[in-house]
Amino acid sequence: MYTGLRVKNMKISGFTIVRNAVKFNYPVVASIRSILPICDEFIVNVGDSEDGTLDLIRSIGSPKIRIIQNRWDMGRGSQVLSEQTNLALKECRGDWAFYLQGDEVIHEQDLNKLKFWMRYYLDRQEVDALRFKWLHFYGSFWRYRIDAGWYQKQERIIRNNGQIESCGDAFSFRRVDGGKLRVRPVFCFLYHYGWVNSSEDMRRRCANAAEIGFMDKDKNNSLDGGYGDLGRFPSYFGTHPSVMHEAVQGHRLSQEDFGHIRRDSWWNPFFWMRLRHKTGQRVKEKIV
User: Fold this and answer.
1) What pLDDT is stored for residue 288 in this prediction?
2) pTM recorded for the entire structure
3) How far is 103 from 141, CA to CA, in rounded Å?
4) Which of 73, 79, 207, 280 is deepest in the core (most CB within 10 A)?
5) Which residues lie closer than 8 Å to 73 by C-beta, 6 or more apart?
6) Bridge partners of 233?
7) How many CA atoms lie within 13 A of 30 on its CB side?
8) CA distance 31 to 36
9) Share in percent of the chain as helix, strand, coil (round to 5)
């Protein structure tokens, strides 16, 4: 198919940071594998861990993966996350650097689209980064958050020219010169699974996040009674990335919730089409 794009060599680097992925049950292997097919290399910055995280990353067994190891200075608070992210970024040699955190996954149906947009903007130096729509799944693989406090779009692909860096708690990126980050949408979803776990696992994660300094110390108390009525959140009718199939099928609460969604949404054509859709509605107040 003719796209009108000039054929030119393009290299894509994937990169991430990870620490204690086994202990806190992060789907980092699925995350890496989700974009590995379009990456020419993948840099993994493995922090000093108390579990088998390093062996877990090595078990992926791809020659594209290059591991660097660092001791994270936890006394730096949330800043340690962007510092370690930037260390991984410095190892990237591609034209584009594709960043995923350990609980973020890309759908295989979007890989060709993403490669198209990276090639399309390759010579357009006025574009610094590419922006995703987010699906923050919560409690169940079939519910997501759109209320206040849950950002709905963010950059994860940046031009690797030394002029862009991770900032804060690695939430986003910024230009080194202080200018506004110039972004373009890619019209693809980023699947965020950080809040689909048992309440017990989430309390441990929240406690760890609070210790680092990027989460309220009282946030984990909100999970004392579980996730509550999941029906107060929008339903997701689409498919999940294939790398998450086993996790989705093995999650009891999600299976129960999907039964409720089937009962309540049998009439909805989006449900039967398994359309990867996100509501345009935005709830401005935080749902507790």
Assistant:
1) 76
2) 0.93
3) 13
4) 79
5) 80, 83
6) none
7) 23
8) 9
9) 30, 25, 45
Q: Which pLDDT tens digit goes with each residue over 7-47?
A: 579 999 999 999 999 999 999 999 999 999 999 999 999 99
CATH class of 12-124+155-176: alpha beta
Query: Nearest-5° angle of CA 124, CA 134, CA 179?
Result: 40
Q: What is the CA radius of gyration of the chain?
A: 19
Give the three-class secondary structure for 173.
Answer: strand
What is the C-alpha to C-alpha distance for residues 212 and 254, in angstroms, rounded to an integer?
30
Per-residue confidence (pLDDT) for residue 207, from 0 to 100: 81
Q: Count how many Cα atoms sit within 13 Å of the Cα of residue 182 in the half-sphere of its side chain.
A: 10
DSSP state of 137: E
Per the listing, tokens 């910055």 go with: 45
- Are 108 and 239 in contact by the 8 Å Cβ rule? The answer is no
CB contact at 8 A, 146 and 192:
no
Q: What single-letter amino acid sits at 248?
A: V
Q: How far apart are CA 98 and CA 175, in angstroms?
A: 16
Q: pLDDT value at position 220? A: 47
